[in-house]
Design a protein that fits this description.
Low-confidence stretches: none
Structural class: alpha+beta
Largest sheet: 5 strands, antiparallel
Mean pLDDT: 80
Number of strands: 14
Order of helices and strands: HEEEEHHEHEEEEEHHEEEEHHHHHHHHH
Length: 549
């Protein structure tokens, strides 16, 4: 709550420790076996966040409320809570009952002079020094002229408690955290105040963007009265509306009587203004969008992202440092003072100093984590004499992992050490390289063989295709010759007026004679001629040989 309010309005307050009455419940068993609920009340220190608007320090305190002479705190309390204060150390029962009888109506006016009606009482806490007369009036023992730190509680202008401060040092039980300091002022400046100018720019640009969008949503109409008239008599643009043009109107077209003008939308220009204002807000607050999870155009490398993350967390480390110095350390220091004053355990008492190292430890832990990761890589080199096992244990602790959960047991470690050690990394790398080269050569050879086989198959397919095409061409040619022969025979038959069957029979007889002549010619040594040829070629064959030979 303290950090949130500090970021929002620039200042926040943590109060404590202050005494509060707590009830403890426990069960006890009697001798007869009965169980009884026992409620014990005891005074314990407590802390709470206080709204900064209810804190009124000394105007002369300067940059720290602890430099002032006093401090006031205002709060609201109900009647039930007032009754619960009866019996607490320092509270006056008679005054509390008188306040409850008066009711919450008797109270001071607010800042504007108005009386606020409420069911809660307005309670004021005062911390500061009181003079001897006031101390004696409150029932405190003191010497003449002595001024001691006191705590006074007032409701309805009645003092219901007046006692010495619970701290001998007289320190105020308030710690103030500021987001950004102001010179000579105890309150600070928050993010909302830092971005006030940029916020006005964003508001103005966004408002103009919406206003311009509303104006550009519909066209502006320019109508020449006396030229056209609406059919329904209503000068409102509606769908499917009918307009009449006067017969005496001296216009060439309706466009001369009614014209629309569209207002341009300035969306791109106004968006650039909004973007510029957002960049101004980042620079004013030192809170980049990277801290909100938006990477933008930043680099995506490991080193670049590490640098960006370190730069983005600078503001967070600064806030953590302020919280440690202004809140955590003095607050815990007062708890330690309470412990030494009121604790019954003497073993925890001593001369100690409280030093808050939250932000420092965070930064050192982050730097150590990065260094350990680099040392883990360097431990592979034996010349550095680094123990990888111990470094890995630090890495596991750094990541909140128990080493006992993931490390090998002692037996497993001994068994691992008894086995032959693995070859050196250089030899493993060389072996892996040789195996890779061999696999590469095998793959290359397989690829070449597959390419040769594919080419041979392609050539064989091409040859088969060519042979098939040649056979098809020969078959086609034979069929064409046969068709030519059939055509010639038909023409010959028509010329001689004989039938085709007679020509076929005559050709068959001639073929038989020629075949017989050929067989007799090979069978007879004198090659006697079986028949006279239908035509005799020029010249004569030699004796003992036929012309065909």
């Amino acid at each position: 709550k303290v950090i949130e309010q500090s970021a929002r309005i620039g200042t926040s307050v943590l109060k404590g420790p202050f005494p509060t009455k707590r009830k403890n419940r426990k069960m006890t068993t009697g001798e007869d076996g009965s169980i009884t609920l026992v409620i014990d009340e005891e005074i314990k220190p407590d802390s709470k966040q206080v709204d900064v608007k209810n804190i009124y320090p000394d105007p002369a305190c300067g940059s720290s409320i602890h430099n002032g002479s006093y401090i006031f705190e205002k709060d609201n309390i109900s009647a039930r809570q007032l009754k619960a204060l009866i019996g607490a150390p320092g509270y006056i029962e008679a005054e509390i009952m008188a306040v409850i009888k008066e009711g919450p109506g008797k109270k001071n006016m607010d800042d504007k002079g108005r009386t606020v009606e409420s069911d809660q009482f307005e309670i004021w806490y005062f911390c500061g020094n009181a003079e001897d007369e006031d101390l004696r009036a409150a029932g405190c023992k003191c010497d003449d002229g002595e001024s001691l730190p006191v705590t006074v509680v007032m409701v309805n202008d009645r003092i219901i408690k007046a006692s010495l401060s619970v701290f001998d040092s007289g320190e105020f039980p308030y710690d103030v955290m500021v987001w950004q300091r102001r010179t000579d002022h105890w309150a600070g400046v928050g993010v909302s105040r830092q971005v006030r100018t940029a916020q006005r720019m964003v508001n103005a640009a966004s408002r103009n963007l919406m206003d311009n969008a509303g104006l550009a949503a519909g066209p502006q109409l320019f109508i020449r009265q006396g030229v056209i008239q609406p059919a329904d008599g209503v000068w409102t643009i509606t769908p499917m509306k009918i307009w009449y043009v006067d017969e005496d109107a001296d216009i060439q077209s309706v466009q001369h009587a009614i014209t629309s003008v569209v207002i341009p939308t300035m969306q791109a220009e106004l968006e650039q203004i909004i973007k510029m204002a957002m960049e101004f807000a980042e620079k004013c607050t030192s809170m980049p969008l990277l801290m909100q999870g938006e990477q933008g155009n930043s680099t995506q490398t490991v080193g670049g992202m590490s640098i960006l993350d370190r730069n983005a967390s600078t503001v967070l480390r600064r806030i953590a440092k302020i919280c440690d110095d202004d809140v955590t350390e003095p607050h815990v220091d007062r708890y330690y003072e309470w412990l030494m004053l009121y604790s019954d355990d003497d073993s925890c008492k001593g001369d100690f100093s409280i030093v808050a190292l939250g932000s420092t430890a965070f930064y050192q832990r982050d730097a150590a984590n990065q260094a350990i990761m680099q040392l883990l890589e360097a431990s592979a080199n034996p010349s550095f004499n680094l123990d990888p096992d111990k470094l890995m244990m630090e890495v596991l602790k750094m990541n909140k992992i128990s080493p006992e959960r993931v490390r090998l047991t002692d037996e497993q470690i001994q068994k691992k050490q008894a086995s032959p050690p693995p070859p050196p990394p250089e030899l493993q790398v060389a072996q892996m390289k040789i195996e890779g080269d061999m696999k590469k050569a095998q793959l290359t050879q397989s690829s070449d063989m597959a390419e040769i086989t594919a080419k041979a198959k392609a050539n064989s397919d091409e040859m088969s295709m060519k042979l098939q095409m040649a056979a098809d061409e020969r078959d086609h040619e034979l069929k064409m010759k046969d068709m030519e022969l059939q055509i010639k025979m038909m023409e010959f038959a028509q010329a001689r007026e004989i039938s085709l069957d007679s020509i076929k029979a005559e050709l068959a007889g001639t073929t038989m004679k020629l075949r017989t002549q050929k067989e007799l010619s090979y069978a007879d040594m004198h090659h006697q001629q079986a028949m006279s040829p239908p035509t005799e070629p020029v010249g004569r064959a030699q004796n003992g040989h036929s012309f065909q030979e």
